[in-house]
Amino acid sequence: MNHFKLSTLVAVSFSLLVLWALTGFVLLNRDMMDTNDSPKSADPIRVLIRTGTESAALRQIAQPFQQATGIKVEFIEVGRDSYFTAVGTQLFAGSNTFDIVLMPSTSIAQFASAKAIIPLDRFMAGSDPAAQEKFDLDDFLSVYRYDGSIYALPTDISTHFLYYRSDLIPNPPETWEELYEVAQQFSASLHPESPTRWGLAMPAVVPEEREKIFDSILWSFGGDLIGDDGSVLFDTRESIQSGEYLEKLVRSRIVPSDLISWDFSRTREGLLNGDIAMAAPYWNSAYPMITQSSSPLKDKIRIALIPGIRDGGGQVRRVPFQHGWTLAINASSSKQVNAWKFLEFATGKQGGMIYARNGGVPARRSILSDPVFRDSRPDFALILESMKMAKSEPSLIYYPAMVQVQEDALAKILTLFASPSEAFQTAAIELRNLSAHISIRSSKRMGEIP
Which PANTHER family does this UniProt record tie to the protein (predicted)? Predict the structure, then answer.
């Protein structure tokens, strides 16, 4: 990255912060939704949430929490399109409009480094031993630290599955090469008699969807973007091989030609309407939506571990992506103690059970393995299996810039604008320049076993 391009990136980042400052309050007020019509109790705590499955499940926790503690909870719900703008504006401006914020684990390093959210360690240490034992931190699949302290706890865990049409594909492919071969059979461009239009699809839009989906392929090939020591690995032989695999999918026309515009919903609909035979890597959260749909194909769509690479010993190396939706406490909140009480309840075992029964995927082993969900949520067992080998992204304060570099490189491959070698080598240079200009405290992965 030359000096002009780096300066431009810095200028764009500053402009984005200014845009946040000018628009965030408007977005928050415009999208604010409070479904509670009853009179407001004294000093309720307010939780900023994003429209979606996670927010709908979180709302069901409020009433049991109030009954247990006497503390009322109000939700500020913001639409998906404007959510990140609203969160960034409010936290960076020091607003106390909300006390707790729902955020992806990938945002924690940015807000923790700016002291916009607070460490939770003192609250956990302050609980009596009986309460600590009941809360059971070791039961979490992942916790999220920055600079040695826990800043957020997950309400929801996300990872990647392989989805496939069991009426067409009796046995799911185990490797990426097997996936490619099966996808060829069910692509109309290669086999006009195919019952599906494409053999494979996956979300590939921005922001962030594209690179997160690709990470499961990148890591299973043995590549990476940033190593645990902060070194850039995007131009290694293994990383480039993963890019060459992606290019092969596009050139072979077994994925949609406009894959770069496919998002979560379009991929799900492609499965449900019979356009695609497989989706991988694809989010685990789609499974209950598929099973609860009215599509005549819903019972034929099955899930399996994402494919991997078979080693010389015959073992398949799979490395699914994982991240969490977490709750963090606003550093500007004047009700941090009560905020912690809700966070503790919502991410605890009682709150987690409520969350699971309302469509969420709690990040607790004990709940995902509970026999009560064996029949109603068969995806829980696959999530637990996937999480044994899953990996998270590095915790970097320049995370958005890292994502932009990776997404640009992937766009070049998806549009056949540049070869994987050229795209990844250019991206690696940009990443090294970024890391040289921005102080890095830690490049540890964002999801850590407690």
Answer: ARABINOSE-BINDING PROTEIN-RELATED, DIACETYLCHITOBIOSE BINDING PROTEIN DASA
pLDDT of residue 449: 57
pLDDT band, very low/low/confident/very high, at 23 (cuts 50, 70, 90): very low
CA 365 to chain centre: 18
Domain of residue 251, residue span: 160-317
pLDDT in tens, 137-184: 999 998 898 889 999 999 999 999 999 999 999 999 999 999 999 999
- For residue 444, the model assigns a pLDDT of 52
pTM score of the predicted model = 0.85
Place of tokens 């695609």: 276
Contact 176, 217 (CB under 8 A): yes
DSSP 7-55: HHHHHHHHHHHHHHHHHHHHHHHHH------SPPPSS-EEEEEETTHHH
Token code pair at residue 38: 């009853």
pLDDT over threshold 50, residue 322: yes
> Do the Cβ atoms of 196 and 277 come closer than 8 Å?
yes
Residue 107 DSSP class: G
Q: Is residue 90 assigned to a domain?
A: yes
Whether residue 329 sits in one domain with residue 297: no
Do 149 and 9 sit in the same domain of this protein? yes
For strands 45-50 and 73-78, give the pairing: parallel
Count of structural domains, the chain:
2
Mean pLDDT of 384-402: 90
**Residue 253: CB atoms within 10 Å:** 15
Cα–Cα distance between 317 and 331 in angstroms, integer?
41
Bridge partners of residue 163, in order along the sequence: 279, 303
Percent of the chain whose predicted confidence (pLDDT) is above 90 = 71
Determine, yes or no, domain membership for 71. Answer: yes
Dihedrals phi, psi of 128, to nearest 5 degrees: -70, 155
Chain Cα centroid distance, residue 175:
23
Residue 346: pLDDT above 70? yes
Q: How far apart are CA 183 and CA 173, in angstroms?
A: 10
Grouping H, G, I as helix, E, B as strand and the rest as coil, residue 74 is strand
Average pLDDT, the chain: 88
Give the span between the Cα atoms of 171 and 175, in whole angstroms.
12
Task: Give the pair of three-digit tokens for residue 129.
Answer: 């031993």
What one-letter code names the amino acid at 329?
Answer: I
- The answer on 166 and 111 residing in a single domain is no
**What per-residue confidence (pLDDT) applies to 206?**
86
Q: For residue 367, what are its two tokens?
A: 């709940």
**Strand, helix or coil for residue 416:** coil
- Cα 89 off chain centre by: 21
Coil, helix or strand at residue 145: strand
